[in-house]
Amino acid sequence: MDSKLLSFFNEIEDHRIDRKKLHPLINIIAIAIGAVICKAESWEDIHQFGLAKREWFEKFLDLKNGIPCSDTFRRFFTALDPTHFEECFLKWTNSIAKEIENETISIDGKSIRRANRMNEDNPIHIVSAWANDNEIVLGQIRVREKSNEITAIPDLLDALYIKGAVITIDAMGYQKDIAKKIVKKEADYILSLKENQPNLYDDVVRSFENNVKSELIETEDFGHGRIENRKYYISNNLNFIHDTDSWVKLNSIIKVVSSRTDKKTSITTTETRYYISSLNDNQRIAGSSRSHWGIENKLHWSLDVLFNEDNSAKRAGNSAQNFNIINKIAINLIKKTKEILILKEV
Predict the structure, then answer these.
(1) pTM reported for the whole predicted model
(2) Packing angle between helix 70-79 and helix 25-37, nearest 10 degrees?
(3) Among 21, 190, 227, 317, which residue's beta carbon has the most beta carbons within 10 A?
(4) What is the 3-state secondary structure (H, E, C) of the chain?
(5) Tens digit of pLDDT for each residue in 159-203?
(6) Can you give the pLDDT at residue 62?
(7) pLDDT per residue as tens digits for the range 107-122
(8) Do residues 70 and 47 make contact, with C-beta atoms less than 8 angstroms apart?
(9) Which of 21, 77, 88 is nearest to 46 (CA)?
(10) Which domains does the chain have, with CATH numbers?
(11) Surface-to-core class of residue 53, CB atoms within 10 Å of its CB (0-12 exposed, 13-18 middle, 19+ buried)
(12) Is the separation of the CB atoms in 132 and 166 below 8 Å?
């Protein structure tokens, strides 16, 4: 396992009292990461993986006291401060991300469903930033109790280096202050609009109903048993938009009509979505709008299907949030390195 990766997590403050530190902090984190990459889901799975791969781990870890037991993993990640863990995760991702300029960074939230059902008083909802070209998670933040994504997104943006990137956010992120923060950090935005945001949404819809001059960009994709056609109508005419001055650097309005045809049934469904953007580059608007769904298709899908996160029963203390970070470290490693191949060969 890359020593550079481990060096970032060695910075974590160890919450354990000295007499309880039988196993070094980095051993616990490294074994958990390796185990999760190889499909471990429970604390016992992680322990058994450590036993099976002990010879390999001994190449870079001090295992004089052996492999931690399942209770040690459980207690450690239940008590570990996730805020500090997230900070170390962010520093590491910044070190492995390639050029961020011209990147599309998608921000969206995801709940850990089973953990929420089992602990309704303290739901786990995580907002993540996904770099589409790099194909890695850049950072994440938990939504505070009795709050929502709108309050979490600015904190996440503060933690990220986004200069030159395009930030795409679904409707929950439709906020003037969020747009202002993105532009202040020398990035551009594409923000989705929904009908529950009536004023600006109605203005944009009215603009296209009045046939404002727009450029049409059309794309077609084949895959997953369907044909998807997208038409992007992009206009710089803001004559029908009220209160444009309060939206910093607002330059474009966008209408996207998506048609999906199932190859087996030949049934076609159509959906229309609307956006606003600070961009003037229509090709980049179309490309970044399409790229936004990478956070669903590549990150959230991986967490649910490959890592079975929604069925995780971890809920005590900080365990669910910390394990979510472990899952994302694993995703980044799989995307960016050949670590998974090394582990399988041992």
Answers:
(1) 0.86
(2) 100
(3) 190
(4) CCHHHHHHHCCCCCCCCHHHCCCCHHHHHHHHHHHHHCCCCCHHHHHHHHHHCHHHHCCCCCCCCCCCCHHHHHHHHHHCCHHHHHHHHHHHHHHHCCCCCCCEEEEEEEECHHHHHHCCCCCCEEEEEEECCCCEEEEEEECCCCCCHHHHHHHHHHHCCCCCCEEEECHHHCCHHHHHHHHHCCCEEEEEECCCCHHHHHHHHHHHHCCCCCEEEEEEEEECCEEEEEEEEEECCCCCCCCHHHCCCCCEEEEEEEEEEECCCCCEEEEEEEEEECCCCHHHHHHHHHHCCHHHHHHHHHHHHHCCHHHCCCCCCCHHHHHHHHHHHHHHHHHHCCHHHHHHHC
(5) 999 999 999 998 666 688 999 999 999 999 999 998 867 789 999
(6) 93
(7) 998 887 655 444 555 5
(8) yes
(9) 77
(10) 3-80+314-345 (no CATH), 193-283 (2.20.130.10)
(11) middle
(12) no
CA 203 to chain CA mean position, Å = 30
Which residue, 151, 149, 181, is CA-closest to 163?
181
CB < 8 Å & 24+ apart, contacts of 33-37: 33/1, 33/326, 33/329, 33/330, 33/333, 34/1, 34/343, 36/307, 36/323, 36/326, 36/327, 36/329, 36/330, 37/330, 37/333, 37/334, 37/339, 37/340, 37/343
342 versus 1: which is more confidently predicted? Answer: 1
Apex 287 CA angle, 285 and 289, nearest 5: 65
Residue 144's nearest CA partner among 154, 135, 136, 134 is 154
Residues forming beta bridges with residue 110, ordered by sequence position: 126
d(CA 321, CA 319): 6
Sheet containing 125-131: give its strands across: 136-142, 125-131, 104-111, 166-169, 188-193, 268-277, 252-262, 226-235, 215-223
Name which of 98, 268, 95, 287 is nearest 190 in CA terms.
Answer: 287
Q: What are phi and psi of 38, to 5 degrees?
A: -100, 30
Residue type, 77: F
Amino acid letter, residue 138: L
